[in-house]
Amino acid sequence: MNPFEQESADAWCKAIGESETFQREGCNWKTHLGLVSGAKGILLDLEGGSCRSAKLLPAEETIRQADTAFRSSEETWRALIEGRESVVSAVMGGKVQVSKGDLFALAEYASAARSLLEAARKASGSLGRA
Q1: Which domain range does residue 63 map to?
Q2: Record's InterPro entries (predicted)?
Q3: Which of 8, 20, 55, 120 qualifies as a FRET site for 1, CA 20 to 30 Å off?
Q4: Is the residue at 33 inside a domain?
Q5: What is the pTM of this model?
Q6: Tens of pLDDT along 56-105?
C-alpha cells in the first residue's frame, strides 16, 4: 500500500469509519491529523470516532491545515502500517518527527492512534496490496 495516493487515503478513511476500536477509542477525538512523506501529505479529518475525510495534499499544505502533523519516510509509514515497526519506537528512534503539534497532548489518544494503523492495515488488504 502506498498511503500517499488518494485511492489509499479514501480506503483508509472508510476502514477507520468501520473500525469498532476507533469508534470507541476515538469517540472524543476531534482533530485534523497530518501524515507527511517527502512532498506529499494526507490530512485526516477525525471526529466522534469516525473519519470525515482523507485528503491528499502537498506536504506544506498538510502541515498548515493539521492540528498535529507527523513526518517520516514512505518506508517507515509502510512499516508502521504493516506492523513491522511500532509507533513508540519510530518516534523515540527519530524515524517519525512531529512537524506540528504537541506529542504529549496526544498521549490520551494513543489507543485511537494504534487503531488508525490497524485500519490502514485493513485498507491495504482491501486494495490487494501488501
Answers
A1: 6-126
A2: SCP2_sterol-bd_dom_sf (IPR036527)
A3: 20
A4: yes
A5: 0.89
A6: 999 999 999 999 999 999 999 989 988 899 888 888 899 999 999 988 87
The cell for 59 is 506536504
Give the confidence band of 129 by pLDDT, cuts at 50, 70, 90.
very low
Reference 56, options 121, 5, 120; nearest CA is 5
Paired sense of beta strands 31-37 and 68-72, if any: parallel
Give a yes or no: residue 80 inside a domain: yes
Distance CA 8, CA 109 (A): 23
Total number of domains in the chain: 1
Look up residue 37 and give its DSSP letter.
E
What CATH number does the domain containing 31 carry? 3.30.1050.10
Q: How far apart are alpha carbons 86 and 80 in whole angstroms?
A: 6
13: amino acid identity, one letter: C
